[in-house]
Amino acid sequence: PNRGFTEMHCMSGHSNFVSCVCIIPSSDIYPRGLIATGGNDHNICIFTLDSSAPLYILKGHKNTVCSLSSGKFGTLLSGSWDTTAKVWLNDKCMMTLQGHTAAVWAVKILPEQGLMLTGSADKTIKLWKAGRCERTFSGHEDCVRGLAILNETEFLSCANDASIRRWQITGECLEVYYGHTNYIYSISVFPNCKDFVTTAEDRSLRIWKRGECAQTIRLPAQSIWCCCVLENGDIVVGASDGIIRVFTESVDRTASPEELQAFENELSQATIDSKTGDLGDIDADQLPGKEHLNEPGTREGQTRLIKDGEKVEAYQWSVSDGRWLKIGDVVGSSGANQQTSGRVLYEGKEFDYVFTIDVNESGPSYKLPYNTSDDPWLTAYNFLQKNDLNPMFLDQVAKFIIDNTKGQTLGNVNTDFSDPFTGGGRYVPGSSSGSDVSAAADPFTGSGVFQSSPLKALNIYFPKKEAVTFDQANLTQILGKLKELNATAPEEQKLTEDDLVLLEKILSLTSNNSAEGPTAHQLQTLWKAVNWPEDIVFPALDILRLSIRHPTVNENFCNEKEGAQFSSHLLKLLNPKGKPANQLLTLRTLCNCFIGQAGQRLMMSQRESLLSQAIELKSGSNKNIHIALATLTLNYSVCLHKNHNIEGKAQCLSVISTVLEVVQDLEATFRLLVALGTLISDDSNAVQLAKSLGVDTQIKKYGSVSEPAKVSECCRFVLNLL
Questions:
Q1: Residue 281 maps to a domain
Q2: φ, ψ (nearest 5 deg) of residue 488
Q3: Is 294 helix (H, G, I), strand (E, B) or coil?
Q4: Of 6, 84, 141, 198, which one has the greatest count of Cβ atoms within 10 A?
Q5: Pair 58, 74: CB distance under 8 Å
Q6: What is the CATH number of the domain that holds 482?
């Protein structure tokens, strides 16, 4: 019987090569799941199992999509040569993860909701939480190519430096594994354990058990691009010869003797280029003959080179068969020296030489890496120290190094087999591109609105329909402070007595909801005061906060012509290094902008930059700033609830999740919960996204807050939606 796989479907939708594939688990709508593919055409195609044409195409990356990972609730994470990763929900991009400076070769969604990993050609790995970079892992010395999740707190990475690293999610590197002699492309974990497999540019698949390389399987192809472990423990690899091979431990699924023989023949006919360093440094004149194969090997996958006439052949020991299997003919080895064979990779670093030193015949042999630019005596000393060997050997080892590297001028790394992805010609993308003004609590408008209701089942909290504003003020105090600070203003910015009268007029007009609007001259005076130096501007900002609620002022500052200048000035005042009083009053001004049509339009058009800057203020301990930040998010949620912009909702969800982690004040918490409820009401996509970011687990604790009762009640209503 044919125990192999048969082709069910051929799907097409990309206009250029396909670089990654991933399965999206089954859902209510697609019980059989979906297949996602990333391509060189910058697109991601999503297929059902029933059609050869894409269900839909995700567009947004600006270069090849080279990695995909699927998560719960229909989320998909993609990595690209454009240096970004993107989070998708169904057919929409939710957020873009920016921070790497080179291609993002590997992505993984972690089991804990909201956590994502990206590995890049900039040699780093980043951990993202709710769309923001939480931590950067450094240690690899070349492109990070693959990631694999061990459990909720640990993961593995592999890289072009020929090493594998095991990391803790908190940032520590727990272990480094060496064994491959060239770029490692792919890593996959066995189900329910810490054992894993890797494939590389050294023609091999390696199986790692308990931290050691337990088995090396050679293949008749140079590049073993990818591997994955199936649920039954079988290992699937894809290689540069266009063939997919499946390896198994199960006797029932082992290929027929004919197929096994065919594989062995294919392997024995392969030509192994000695220049790649896959078999170490080779001197054909020193190699033994075929009689060397009469001695059994000592471990699975051990390689042995022998000379047969003019040919050099490579053999590998198979424990199960108890014999040496030929794995290919070594080409370019006759008289090959270091000059022709390029540099040698050892423990992830390139060296001009890696010598094998036998200290005594019965003991183990030791590897001695050396570069011609190194001091032979120092290298010998370090080698003896590292391997705990007798310092008496110092002269002997140093002399050995000098004798064996005489007069070598070393050529460049050989690039004959330069591969378009990883070789010297590989594509490396460029860089991607303290004082509190008002300590009064700010109640929601319509002060009685949020009183806890005896009818527990009635949700009076969200979706909120109107913007929340900051209206409280002591006008006499504000004007008094303005006059006092005017005396210290630079001469060219000082306000005249007339100016001060005009500002007083604005305050009384806008605070009494007068139908009469301020004049253009009065508004120019206000703008002049708002541009005062940072250390004295806060009373002017307070006047702006109150007056921006007036339709005339709102239209004047937020219209299409003036809006850009207005918002960029406020952005500057949000600077995290600035004065807390300015930050607080600027946030309150932004909240109050939402009361007018022009203000709403301006706030929505500047959403990305304003929220990105505002969230930087989360780390202070000023509770009034936290309340203002929560209110700004809430006002954005009110607008987004009306227009269902899912990318905007994704940014707000990310802000809510991030700010909830730091706020202590329950009023700020409450406003964030109302914002969350408003965002996800009547929108199943937003509910899915909130779940995938793990917001539900984050807010559970607020369900038990006793005072004020509105916090726990609102929390329970949100949890019901989730």
A1: no
A2: -95, 0
A3: helix
A4: 198
A5: no
A6: 1.25.10.10
